[in-house]
Write a structure and sequence with these properties.
By secondary structure, this protein is α/β, with parallel strands linked by helices. Helix content is about 35%, strand content about 25%. Bound molecules: S-adenosylmethionine.
Length: about 260
């Protein structure tokens, strides 16, 4: 879809990610090379987070906002037939190159994860790690994930913890130890320092939205930086994430 026909935040984030893609190649290469998946900024091992079924043979899986598509690659290695959709052609160029280098047979689509060009009930498993999970409007992408999944299908996603978003001064400035914005009514977050648009919800809203769109919640995790973590990121330091949860994981099942 041409940028002019996209929702305003999707067009804005397309511009942002096409500009940023070069900075994500190194992480993409590192994650594609991992023998065991690890998740989030602090790269917590799959054995502790449990995002993926061990055997995905014959599973139709979709990654919503796949970026450099290493999660798609991990799922393909476990036997899944994988579709990755991403809003940035520049990110997909890296994804296609790395998938080719790793011999992964992925279907990679350029598009908006809030409106995926697949029929209802096409997939058994949907996942997002920092893709749709933070960049798409939850009131659009969660119902879209429900539409795409078959009854009994699973949705798993990881994104920024809402507490972190309340304490974040800007997209590229580390969260402090003060609440800077209201919790009630939280939804769209615009970051003046880089022009991107993210989304976050109060937890009651996340749970209600998932239930109202046909999901049962299987698990909800609040991730903490490991005790030996030392690496800081633009918007969160290791010290912050040792004290407060910087990331969350939802695991949900579509009701039969
Ligand atoms: C941080 S990457 C996530 C991928 C990967 N897990 C990672 O952490 O590098 C965020 C991705 O979300 C994509 N994205 C943002 N808005 C999107 C939308 N509306 N539909 C699909 N993808 C979107 C961006 O283009 C970007 O590639």
């Amino acid at each position: 879809m041409p940028s002019g026909e996209l929702p305003e935040h999707v067009a804005e984030n397309r511009r942002h990610w096409d500009e940023m893609a070069g900075e994500w190649v190194e992480r993409g290469i590192r994650c594609w090379n991992m023998s065991e998946p690890s998740w989030g900024e602090f790269e917590i091992p799959e054995s502790q987070v449990g995002m993926l079924p061990a055997d995905m043979s014959g599973v139709d899986a979709i990654e919503l906002g796949c970026g450099t598509a290493y999660v798609s690659g991990w799922m393909a290695r476990r036997g899944a037939r994988v579709v990755g959709i991403d809003n940035s052609e520049a990110q997909l160029a890296t994804a296609r190159r790395l998938a080719g280098e790793h011999g992964a047979d992925l279907t990679l689509l350029h598009g908006n994860a809030e409106a995926v060009p697949y029929p209802d009930a096409s997939f058994d498993f949907a996942i997002s790690e920092y893709g749709a999970a933070i960049w798409c409007d939850p009131y659009a992408w969660i119902p879209e994930a429900a539409r795409l999944l078959r009854p009994g299908g699973r949705l798993v996603f990881l994104g920024n913890h809402t507490l972190l978003q309340l304490c974040a001064p800007d997209a590229l400035a580390p969260a402090g130890d003060r609440l800077l914005r209201d919790y009630f009514g939280l939804h769209r977050l615009e970051w003046p320092d880089d022009g991107s648009v993210e989304f976050a919800l109060p937890y009651g809203e996340w749970f209600r939205l998932l239930r109202d769109t046909g999901f049962e919640i299987e698990d909800f995790l609040e991730l903490q930086a490991p005790a030996d973590a030392t690496r800081d990121f633009d918007y969160v330091t290791a010290a912050w994430s040792k004290r407060w949860p910087s990331e969350h994981v939802f695991k949900a099942v579509k009701r039969a």
